[in-house]
Structures are given as structure tokens and as C-alpha cells.
Amino acid sequence: MIQLAIAGAAGRMGRTLIEAAHENPQTQVVHGFEQPGSSHIGRDAGELTGIGTNGVSITDHIGSIDFDTLVEFTSPAATVEHIEYCRANRRQIVIGTTGFSEQDQEKIEQAAQDIAIVLAPNMSVGVNLCLKLLEVAAEVLGDSVDIEIIEAHHRTKVDAPSGTALRMGEVIAAALDRTLADNGVFSRHGRTGVRGDKDIGFATIRAGDIVGEHNVMFASSGERIEISHKATSRMVFAHGALRAAVWLSQQEPGLYSMENVLGLG
Q1: Is residue 22 among the annotated active site residues?
Q2: Distance between CA atoms of 259 and 221, rounded to whole angstroms?
Q3: Alpha-carbon span 11 to 70, nearest angstrom
Q4: Is there a catalytic annotation at residue 107?
Q5: What is the pTM (predicted TM-score) of this model?
Q6: Burial of 261 by CB count in 10 Å (0-12 exposed, 13-18 middle, 19+ buried)?
Q7: What is the DSSP annotation of 121-158?
Q8: Which one is catalytic: 22, 132, 157, 198?
Q9: pLDDT digit string (tens) for 178-214?
Q10: Strand pairing of 212-220 and 69-72?
Q11: Which residue in the list 40, 82, 107, 153 is annotated as catalytic?
């Protein structure tokens, strides 16, 4: 059984992960922690989540209890700090945090020389299947279509476009021998001129409690193909993260994606 530590255990995603791990016979939460000063420090993680007492008291430090794998859905700054601990103590880590800078990404890649890491902007099995479908669609349709990516999330999400939308764009760009640096269009306002033939457009919506929606259009004259994914519960991300944690337990040090976990890449 994989013994898990949950970062941000009292948050919405942390609670969902604790609930999912409780239902998964291959995983056990042995440690949950929050930022120092949190009002949830000392509370039983199971009671907080609603699954009943599980004997895991929420602490204010990652290193207070031994574990096999850290599951991380927090902020870039916190994640990078936690990675350093995991690297020093040879703990594996599943990262669903988004919004990393290039410098943060370099630190993750360096840590992966010593520990096994799954890094994915979206842990949903469905989203990662969509990534494969997008690759195929881009290869088949080539330069004959206009490509637009529309994403929607809850009003408290702080990065835009979403990490998932960016990953979708990267997959499409790679299949078409383009880059988002050259062809990504992230803002349109006023008289923008005619759309570029190789543009990959992004549109962002932030509203209410939308868990996560992504829609990719491949549009030409006379027809439009759309590949969409809509998440209605954070549980889909939690189940994917736990699947990654179980898979990671059998891997050597390295940086892996959900495509690797699912055997898609």
C-alpha cells in the first residue's frame, strides 16, 4: 500500500484527495499538512473531509511524518519548496500544481534526476485521452484549419490560460511543427487584423464554481471539429493523481507525465 502525504490537506483539492485515497485499496493517507497558522492545524483529516476519524492530524510541516509519495496541488512557490524536501529525503511526488516559471521548471527537472516525479497540468484520465486525440486531429488536419482553445474555470483560479489549455496548445503545436512562442495568440482586443493562418488562439473564462472545461476547435470553411472535456467534480483529478502515485511507486527516478502513466506516450 502506498503511503501518501497530502499538501494543502484542508483545501478543496486536499479534502478530495483524502476522500479518494480512503476509497482506494492501494493508497493510505498517513500525513496531511497546511500552511503554518492555518486554523485547521491539529484537526483530524478524516473528520475534516467527512469520511470519519482516520487518526491523521493535520500538521504545519511536510517533514513531521514519514511517507512514500507526496501529492501536491498547491502553489508554485510551495511546490518547489516541497520538492526540495522530497529530493533530499528520496520521496516520490505527484504534482498537479500549475503556473510554474521557467526557473521552477528547471528545479523540477533537476530534482527528477534523483527522485521519480509525475508532473501534469491535469490529472484527469479523460483530459489526457483528449491530448492524444488532439495530437491525432492536428496531424490529420494539418494547416487546413483554424485552431482555437477555450477554457473555463472557477473565479478563484489565479493563472491563465490554464495549465491544461497550454498543454493542449503545446501538443497541437508540436504535431504541426509550430511553437506557442511563435504562434500562440493569448489576447485579442480592438482592431487585431486578419487571423494568422498558423495562429493557435486561446480564450479564458473565469466564473462562479466551474471545475474545469476545455474546448478545442478545428475550424475550416464548411465544417468544424471540436474536442471537449468538462469536469463536474474534482474527484476525477484526485482519482488520476492516485493512479499516478501507484504507478510511480514502480518507477526509477525521472520526470514523467500522465501520458506515461496511462501508456499513451
Answers
A1: no
A2: 33
A3: 15
A4: no
A5: 0.83
A6: buried
A7: S---HHHHHHHHHHHHHHHHHGGGSEEEEEEEE-TT--
A8: 157
A9: 999 999 999 999 999 999 999 999 999 999 999 999 9
A10: unpaired
A11: 153
